[in-house]
Each structure stands twice: as structure tokens, then as C-alpha cells.
Amino acid sequence: MDVVVQRGQYKGTPYVCLIKQQNQGKRDSLIAVRSFLHYFNKRGESPSTIIKPELFDWLATFFIRNAQFSKVDCLVGMDADTVLDRECVYELVQEQRLPNTLGVAGYVVVDWKDKPWGLWRLFQNAEYTVTQCVRRLHQGRVTKKVSVLPGACQILKINDETCCDLVLLDKFGAKPQITDGLYKQIMFSASEDGNHVCCVMTTFSKARTRQCLRARAYTDVPVSWSVYLSQRRRWSLGATGNDWLLVSGPNVLWFERTLSFVNTFTWFLTPFVFAAYCTFFYVIIAHASLVILYLAAILLIPIIYYFFIPFGLLKLSYKEKWQYFAGLMLYLVLGPPCRFIVLCYALWNMDQFGWGKTRQVINEDGAKANVDNVSQHGADSQYSEEDRRQVATTPPNMSSVNVATRDIAGEEKRLGA
Description:
This protein is 50% helix and 17% strand. With 417 residues, it is an alpha+beta fold. It has 2 domains: 92 residues, no CATH class; 281 residues, no CATH class. A 5-stranded mixed beta sheet has the order 3-6-5-7-4. Strands 2-1-10-11 form a 4-stranded mixed beta sheet, with helices on one face. Strands 8-9 form a two-stranded antiparallel ribbon. Helix 9 runs parallel beside helix 10. The radius of gyration is 23 Å and the shape is globular. It starts with a strand and ends with a strand.
């Protein structure tokens, strides 16, 4: 697969862009960038890397001469459909400076664009907020073991714990064998950011990751069933697989292991939870009694917590609070059936490893066009054990890489094959 490397300046800031010719997910990109930065810091030791020498030298020269970096301490990650708040990076860096912190998860909210009261965005805004202010909040403040650093907003420390070959290549980048089951196939293609964190946590027991609710990022969300189900399928399968990795992996706190097991078990009980949810509301309406009201009062405890989130945990404007409460009403009513539909869709399509039509690009004539992403599991796209150990190719899934460079004027130079 060809890779074009473009360099230039944007508003006075030097940049370098690695452009892949295929979309095989971002696992290969994460490995390439993080491995390069790790060995860039160790370049004085003449390390053997998975990056081709020509490309490594070119990138290192750019960092030293153009960007004037002699060392990279941290890497800020974001998605292409995400906009960071003005103070986001500052808050991430401040949180990153706490002792033994290897990574920090930012707070991802919905980008409202021109539809601040759209039903899709209201529902997902409440969904995002509740998800990040329950288990992830507990992980960040109590156990210091946040198991997901979202790709939309994160900061990762570049060191031997996060970017060593043991984590990046042997665990995170290990390709599934043809005889492996669906679990390993799914883990190789879904929830890459969470999987990397889980690999670090199960390798190094003292690794700490945190959450920073002050670091806000605004992300575009699906506004159609097809894209929503495609995205949630990957999230659902990936998150459940990562939870199971924490259940069975070493170096995990017993409390975190227990919560991961409960999450995994609850995922399988989603149909029962949905049926019980519908039956309970039917009983409240049709057969109201004092006992039923007592049970309803117990179920109100998490709902009361949801209502206090925008007052005690988050700094929201008056309008943002109303948007959250409107979305929360939708979430409480439509959340269980949506989770049931996502589970059914995920199980039915769990052997599909493509990314679907997840974004749009603008053609030269100004028309929008969907971009079909290439399936990750191809016969020639796998990364052998021998390949990972030689100084030959860039990230996994690439048996060979042709690299060309071009500056902002468009001139290209081929570095090697």
C-alpha cells in the first residue's frame, strides 16, 4: 500500500501528513505514529524500528528542523470529525502532569452544528454525557484506571510503557490467525483506542489513566439509522471485548475486574433488561400498587443522579442544560429499545469487519459523495510475525509500503518500496 507524506505550514504551524491509500481502520496508523515517536526519542541509541529507514530519517529531520522538536513527551489524539475546545489541550496537559499518569481521556460532547434541537443530536448528547459521567468518571477519580481513551479527545504519554514493542506489536498489533475465533477477529478490528489502553493496563500494573471533564471536544454524530447502527456495532462489540480482556487479563485491580465482568454479563442480558423494562412500565400503569411504587422509587436513584450531572460535575450554560434534559427524556424512554436493536444488529453482523459509509467528502464540483471504507481483513493485508521483527515496513496490515513525499507546492519524491 502506498503512503504519501505531505509537509507544509498551516497558519504558521509546521505540519506533516501521512496519507494512506486505503482505509483499513486506524490500528496501523496508531502503531506507526506511536512507534515512530517512541523511537524518535531514542534515536541516539540507533534503535531498530518497524519504520523504513528512509521514512524514519525524513520524519526525524522534519521534527528537528521544521518543528524544532528534540523530544516528544505526549501525543494528543483526535478524530477528523472532532473540534477541540480552545482550552482542551491545555487541560489535557495539566491532567497529564499528575504522577504516574500515562494517558488522559477528554470529555466528548455533540457538535450541534445548525440543529441545536435535532432529536438525533439531543439523544446522543445525553447518551454521551451519561456514559462518560458514570463508569468512566469512577475510573478516573477512584481507581485511576480509565479503560478507554476516546479517539476523539485524548493525550498519551510517549514512553516505554505505552509505546514499547511488547505493547504495540506483540499485543496491540498481533494479527489473528486463520484458526482464531470471532473474539480475536473482533478485537483486531474494533475499538482500537480502548484496546490499546487495555493492553497497557494488563501489561503494567502501575499504569494510570485519568479523565478530564474540563477538556471538551465537539464531535459530529450520526443522524441516520444506517450510520448509527454501524458505529454502535463496532463500539458495542469492541467495548465488550475489551471488558472481557480486563476480566481475564493479568495486572488488573479486583474491583475493575469485577465491574468489567458485570458489564460483559449485562451486555448479554440486554434482551431480558428490555423486556423487564417494558413489563415494569406496563405494571405501573395497569396494576399500580404501593409495592410497585416502592420498586419504582428504587429505580429512580440512577435517574436522580442523571439529573444532577449538569449541576455538580459539568459546567454547562443555561442552553446546554436544557439540551441535556431534553435529550435525557429521550434517552430514558428510547435508550433500552435502542440498546436492544444495537445488540441484535451487532450479533447479526459481528462477522463483518468493514467500516461502512461513515463520512462524506466533497468532490471537486462541490457535490457530496459517500466514502466506502475498505474491509480490514484481506488475505494480503495481514502482518506476519517475521515482518514485525524486521526493519522493513510501516504498521501492521502492510506487507510493503511505497512512500512518496511532497511539500505544500505538490512536488513528490519517492523514498522507497
